[in-house]
Write a structure and sequence with these properties.
The complex is a heterodimer of chains A (about 350) and B (about 325). Helices cover about 35% and strands about 25% of the residues of chain A. With about 350 residues, chain A is α/β, with parallel strands linked by helices. Chain A has two domains: about 5-110 and about 190-335, P-loop containing nucleotide triphosphate hydrolases (Rossmann fold); about 125-190, no CATH class. In chain A, strand 11 (about 325) and strand 12 (about 330-335) form a beta hairpin. Chain B is built from twelve helices and twelve strands. Chain B is globular. The chains are: A alpha/beta (about 350), B alpha/beta (about 325).
Chain lengths: ~350, ~325
């Protein structure tokens, strides 16, 4: 079944049965304490992720976009339990993994992998490509040496490198090739779910396209589910089925790709989309300009966190926090422009 | 175009002499001009030589790199004939530069005001007080609401977008004729990127300065440049007006670059990636430097490197498909 078909089926079934859910995040919070004074007491919290709920369906790609400081990377790391959640639940195939101990977590980790942004920092420079790809197999399986080697060669070829590259070291490769190595390593344990944290943003456009095509091919072949975190709206649009827009630790809008890009509802999404420089020299989009910078997540504005930069902010925005509201067909938006129930 | 260009670069070659006698031809025979008040963009991927070209204009090339040939003429004076002392009078005054990462370009131990005043006092004969007033005014111009306080703050106290604004204030402090902006918005978020690029465009109008915009982002080129050079392997492969590059693309590399861009407007099932990677500058292919990745490669492409020819009016291409 092609990806589109899977996705179509998912959307059809979503309302009645939700057994297609692979990952569910429920009211997740991740606060980092700020220590101050001589006694290093906690004087405040950076609310990196502040009450985020979302579901990721089997076989889909959920894109997460946001600017720096929006909490998108922290969200990815908390889902993998690389960071401990402050509050909230993470369900993987209906099992609550938010409080699992290390040993049990290890079994789940085989199913969940991550590919990082910087392929220079995430690969151990003292290990050969073969060793890097075999390492997860060595740690997590009882495969023999020759089986591991066979599997590694297979993976290395799958990601578009040569079997002879097995004995080379990361420094002998370009950025794009290193990202291929990271992907081979992530695939080693046949995971169901891969978090891709800005996997192509350090790459040149021609190489970025190669890696994105590879990721799409692998998704089809291995039936993978992706959480694709990036700041580049065009890249996210290209690879995702659904997209979540984050701002200051919260989800501003989440919708199927087409709906989000064709009909963005949240003023932040609208501004974000209009700010992307376009190569279409004939039809210039009008830009919505946002003033100012992202407020500090240690001291977010009251009510709606976007109100300080929002061109359409009104009184209610400073007192009441907007909740995600269903606008139909899986399009959710957290904005008081769309939830006028009591006015 | 008979107008005298502001900057005229001819036959520029900047080579890097590496260990074991290898020579990296980072910039290898580049000719271009910039008219007064014009925005010229140089696009290319890493290793194309776009940044080395801009650093060569400023003569900020250090060992093992060396400008080995060419002329760089700013208003009829060859900059390559200037002494180090003369060049340091030109840098910051006639030509200013802003960089991708403002944190590495600003000095962390001096206040913002100090650094702007240093530039002003180096080039203009003004008192400390006048320089300070000018610094405050400049910060206001680039959009700081509380400029009087900002001059006493250090770079780390500002956000990325603010630092880039401070750099722009410093760069325009002596009203340069040419501003070289090397990936000025790459490290910034899109909403901030739009603010900074609009600010640059506004400053260009106000001060009537020319901008040499170095970028890898074709969207930025489309929105902010008048003319564009596409660089590959240390050479210009295509040069034309900005509408032409998108509407009438000629060089296979430019086509490949545009096809690999995911788009907000169009839905694409697959991106048209360019195969392979940019060859390193010390071992370019013998013929055309793009031949190893080109989908239209012919026999003669492997034998000799094509020249940059004008194939239509104001449209130059370095490719045998067009002659």
């Amino acid at each position: 079944m092609s990806q589109q078909q899977v996705y179509k089926q998912i959307t059809e079934n979503r309302e009645e049965t939700d057994n297609n859910v692979l990952v569910q995040v429920d009211h997740m919070k991740k606060y980092f304490p700020i220590k101050g004074g001589i006694l290093k007491r906690t004087v405040g919290h950076v609310k990196a992720v502040d009450d985020v709920s979302l579901t990721i369906h089997k076989g889909e790609t959920l894109g997460v976009v946001g600017e720096s400081g929006s909490g998108k990377s922290t969200l990815g790391r908390v889902i993998l339990r690389l960071l401990e959640p402050t509050e909230g639940k993470i369900l993987f195939e209906d099992n609550d993994i938010s409080h699992l101990g290390n040993r049990k977590l290890r079994d789940y980790r085989k199913n969940m992998q991550i590919v990082f942004q910087d392929p220079y920092a995430s690969l151990n420079s003292k290990m050969s490509v073969g060793e890097l790809v075999e390492e997860p197999l060595l740690v997590n399986t009882s495969m023999s040496k020759s089986e591991r080697k066979e599997k590694a060669v297979d993976l290395i070829e799958k990601v578009g490198l040569r079997a002879s590259d097995r004995t080379k070291y990361p420094h002998e490769f370009s950025g794009g090739q290193r990202q291929r190595i990271s992907i081979a390593r992530a695939l080693a344990l046949n995971p169901k779910f891969i978090i891709c944290d800005e996997p192509v943003s350090a790459l040149d456009v021609s190489i970025q396209a190669q890696v994105l095509n590879l990721m799409a091919d692998l998704q089809d072949e291995f039936d993978l589910t992706y959480l694709f975190i990036a700041h580049d709206l065009s890249v996210v649009k290209h690879i995702s089925d659904r997209v979540a827009v984050m701002y200051l630790g919260r989800i501003a809008e989440i919708a199927p790709k087409k709906s989000l890009y064709d009909n963005p509802l949240h003023p932040y999404t609208q501004a974000l989309l209009s700010s992307v420089p376009s190569t279409d020299v004939k039809n210039r989009r009008e830009k919505i300009k946002l003033s100012g910078d992202l407020p500090s997540p240690a001291n977010p504005p009251s009510g709606c966190v976007f109100r300080t930069r929002c061109p359409r902010a009104h009184d209610r925005c400073s007192v009441e926090r907007p909740e995600l509201t269903n606008m139909g067909d899986g399009h959710y938006v957290a904005c008081h422009l769309y939830d006028n129930t009591d006015t | 175009m008979t107008q005298n260009p502001l900057l005229d670069v001819e036959g520029l070659k900047t080579y890097f002499y590496l260990e074991d006698n290898q020579v990296a031809k980072a910039v290898d025979g580049v000719d271009f001009y910039i008219n007064p008040g014009e925005t010229l963009a140089i696009v290319g991927e890493s290793g194309s030589g776009k940044s080395i070209t801009s650093l060569s204009i400023m003569q900020l090339i250090n060992k093992p790199g060396k400008i080995i040939d060419g002329t760089i003429t700013l208003e009829e004076e060859n900059l390559l004939k200037k002494t180090g002392k003369q060049m340091s009078k030109i840098r910051g005054n006639d030509i200013a530069m802003i960089f991708q990462e403002p944190m590495t370009a600003l000095n962390p131990v001096y206040t913002i005001g100090n650094q702007i005043m240093e530039t002003i006092r180096k080039h203009k004969n003004v008192s400390k007080k006048e320089a300070q007033e000018r610094a405050i005014e400049l910060l206001r111009v680039v959009g700081f609401p509380r400029a009087e306080e900002i001059i006493n703050e250090y770079p780390h106290q500002l956000s990325g977008g603010m630092r880039q604004r401070a750099m722009i204030a410093m760069a325009i402090s002596c009203e340069p004729k040419l501003l070289i902006a090397d990936e000025p918005s790459t490290a910034l978020d899109v909403t901030i990127q739009a603010q900074i690029l609009d600010l640059l465009a506004e400053m260009k109008e106000r001060l009537d300065m020319a901008i040499l915009l170095i970028t890898h982002d074709l969207g930025v080129v489309a929105e902010y440049a008048d003319r564009v050079l596409v660089m590959y392997g240390g050479q210009i492969v295509e040069e034309t007006a900005v509408e032409q590059i998108f509407e009438n693309t000629k060089h296979p590399y430019t086509t490949g670059l545009l096809d690999s861009l995911p788009s907000l407007e169009k839905d694409m099932k697959r991106l048209g990636a360019i195969k392979g990677t940019v060859p390193p500058a010390h071992s370019f292919p013998k013929g055309c430097r793009f031949s190893s990745r080109c989908p239209h490669v012919m026999e003669r492409c492997l034998e000799s490197n094509p020249d940059l020819n004008e194939v239509e009016s104001n449209h130059k291409v370095r490719c045998y498909l067009y002659n």
